[in-house]
Amino acid sequence: MQEQQKLITLENISKEYDGTVVLEDINLYVRKNEFLTLLGPSGCGKTTTLRIIGGFEKPTTGSVIFDGQDITDLPPYKRRVNTVFQKYALFPHLNVFENIAFGLKVSKRSKEEINERVAQMLDLVNLKEYGKRRVDSLSGGQQQRIAIARALVNEPEVLLLDEPLGALDLKLRKGMQLELKRMQQRLGITFIFVTHDQEEALTMSDTIVVMKDGRIAQIGPPKHIYDEPKSAFIANFIGESNIIRGRMIKDELVNFCGTNFTCVDFGFAKDAQVDVLIRPEDIVIVGEDVGQLVGTVKSVLFKGVHYEMIIDAGGFSWKVHSTSMQPEGSQVGLSIVPFNIHIMKPMEEEELDE
Amino acid sequence: MNNLSIPSWGFWLMGIGFGLFVAMLVHTIRRNRGMKRSFYAWPYTLWMVVFTVLPLVLIAYYAFTDKAGQFTLENFANFWDSNRGMKTQLIAQGFDPEALGMGARGTVNVGTLIYSLWMAFLCTGISLLLGYPAALIMADREFKLGATIVVLFIIPMWMNFLLRTIAWMSLLEDNGLINTLLQSLGFAKLKLMYNSQAVLLGMVYNYLPFMVFPIYNSLNRQDRRLSEAAMDLGANKWTTFWRVIFPISMPGIVSGITMVFMPSVTTFFIPRVLGGGNTEMFGDLIERTFLTADDWNVGSALSLIMMVLILFSLGLLRKVDPEGEGGSLI
What we know:
A: alpha+beta; 6-stranded mixed β-sheet; 34% strand; B: mainly alpha; 16 helices
């Protein structure tokens, strides 16, 4: 990927509320036209980070750089960013048209321009006929689109989205994910998206920032984060996983469940304790005689596309996803190719490092 | 008392009215059989009938009858011309009021009503101007003393309003606290009491909390993110206030205006204490008509006019704010 312009940079941002640290030493940059997602469990500081970028919170230390300019002390109304709020925060006393026109009216645009641009926006979010409607007469999905239109009509350089899809039902959410991604690509606007839904993050983002306890745990493209999580926490949070304690015999050979497995990782000390991550879909069910591990199927759940089986083997309960079902109680062999065995530093050690 | 000499048809009318009411209640309870809740509404219903519905019926009855219990509009004519009673007496005694130079219309009643409305209007306006900023400060989460101010507003309300009003006397009197202080500083004494301004001061002082609290409630309930959204869209603090915070607090304002205007119009006692009788208001007039002039029929007519006026202004407020809380206060 070619080096793109860094549009927003967060430098050593930390934030305390009455002595409680909610953000600690956040360093992060956002490239132009990037779709960046802040992902983490509730209370990890992702919304606070977004609010600092939006200007609603001042960091205790550190600075926010926008396009080469320090905007840390700039109030929200002077920033070239707009926000789509959690639960939308539409103005209840204004109708749909007036809600979208708010930003343009405040910046004293001409009536013709306002009419034209609001109409454009209503068209963009597929709500052409809704201008005169009261906002509380709209469904959640429609309110969502109005909130997006209200922010986008100001042609911001960056759009901040604070869990914008959280209140929608599954089907609507999937649709909106695609729509948002399309809008972002079409309009060429930088999106900073906050969510706790890992699937949403994986689907939409160019870059995912995983946060935990006010710190950044890992930054990277979705595929990289999914395939090479830096810690068991990230592996658990993103996708489903089997995490088991292991020991490095030597480079590219790891021992767990009393068996040696070839892997592709190296650089660990001999006999180092490691966490081994194996995704449920990466475990292949084979015949008893050829499996690296042999075990018994404990339970089977039908999940639509695949079956989820819990298989006890080598003293560990493996979660296995497969499209072919093995009956409960049957003996099966498990096989894992080296490429799908991910070695991570064990959790405690990693936390001590920080 | 001859006022209570209700003719037999009056009793019949009331009896029929009460009977209808009971029948409706029984019907409602029957229809909702199984819904035991209506049973618990009985004590309150009874209370309402005895102390609200019945008095209202009586007021309407008195307002439209003369002392003999005959239907008449004379009481309302008395409101329009406060000398009418006297003139009628003169004519009955064989005099011509015109010839005696007493034919002019007495404007006391109408004048008092207009004065009351004007005072209530001023009181409501001043309360709004003082109360809104106060409510705004109290609802500000950044401002740590907000809760303290709320308590400071509530504490005086624990005291009887007569006491609070009388307490103002000792401040405003010719030899009161303020004048003593002024004198000791070498200034001349001020005439602070027995004028409209003193009455207005007393009214604003007593009714201000009724303006502040509804507004405070609606501001406090307001979603903070709405102001953030406005700022996000480029509105500075001033614009955010006028375009978002203020319009959304409208129900609170309407409610506050209602709660101050209604008691203001019917204010009595305050003008007597602080205005010293120079500034009679409609509430005092009604009281005087009932108790001093002992004329229940005219008094009832005056009360009825007052009630209609209040209902009318409530209706107006409803127009301003269709879903507001103001109208539901009656």
